[in-house]
């Protein structure tokens, strides 16, 4: 079995075996963030937390057939890419995904840990959207969410000790299609989101 396939199977097994079988009290203990880091070979992420690429499609798409907002270089994009991403919670860590924008849609998948909050700023109408990823799907959490292309968004672990999630992009992610948000510019464009911007945007 391919290593990536085995890793995906292990994540699914952990998720399924940690679901209550007969009552809320019957849960298995989840791994620590250190155990997940070591098992999956997660590397430090520039913004905090840890990640590893788990999928890079063999095929590619010419950038010439993509919308104009995609960067000119490189001249192709992989069909799709995927990563594991782990953000730790609490004041001891400064793990967060700062406000940024992608040229392509990005799917967020919840796997393990506590709640993850995603904050979206929509340039089309200036609206603010807050989404909670987590296992409490019968209330206000979801296990999957699509961040639309050309939307400012940031994220942080808002419950438990960490949030272990996955990101899938199509076309695949390249850094040339990633744009970091500027705090001053975002405050001018989205004044109603000032508290979120102060928390999740960089000054420069």
TrEMBL record:
Domain of life: Eukaryota
Signal peptide residue numbers: 1-24
Keywords: Signal
Domain (DUF985): residue spans on this chain: 37-180
The UniProt record lists the keyword Signal: yes
InterPro entries documented for this protein: Cupin_DUF985, RmlC-like_jellyroll, RmlC_Cupin_sf, YML079W-like
Gene3D superfamilies, per the entry: Jelly Rolls
Entry-linked Pfam families: Cupin_5
Name by which UniProt lists this protein: Cupin superfamily protein
